[in-house]
Amino acid sequence: MTNQPDGPSFLDNPHAPDIFADGATGFFIFGGNLRITFESLRVNHVTSPGPINSVVIGRLVMPVDQAEALARGVLDFLEKQRAQPAPQAQGTPTLQ
């Protein structure tokens, strides 16, 4: 037997972009992959007050089994966070 890891090693990328979405608009499965469309609210400042539009900002495509693992992981994380007591305030913040 050879000593091979169970899967590829994890390489952290500190330059990977963070994406904020106001919501997940749509879900569908095609070719064994779950496809999720994300949206964010944007204001058109051409007029005042500007109209607010919901704009597609990205799509995530994952194999169904990995999407299920993600969903379970997120729910488990949220349940654990809710079970923890709220942290106590540590005094008034100051600027230095």
Features of the shown structure:
extended, 32% strand, 96 residues, alpha+beta
Structure description:
There is one protein chain. With 96 residues, the protein is of the alpha+beta class. The chain has a domain of 59 residues. Helices cover 21% and strands 32% of the residues. Strands 1-2-3 form a three-stranded antiparallel β-sheet. Strand 1 and strand 2 form a beta hairpin. The radius of gyration is 20 Å and the shape is extended. It starts with 22 loop residues before the first strand and ends in a 13-residue tail after the last helix.
Blueprint of the fold:
Blueprint: E1 23-30, E2 33-43, E3 52-63, H1 64-83
Antiparallel strand pairs: 1-2, 2-3
If helices are DSSP runs of H or I spanning 4 or more residues, what is the number of helices? 1
Distance between the termini: 59 Å
Q: What characteristic shape results from the CA principal axes? A: extended
Tell me about the largest β-sheet: 3 strands, antiparallel
Provide the succession of SSEs.
EEEH
Structural class: alpha+beta
State the gist of this model.
The protein is of the alpha+beta class. It is 21% helix and 32% strand.
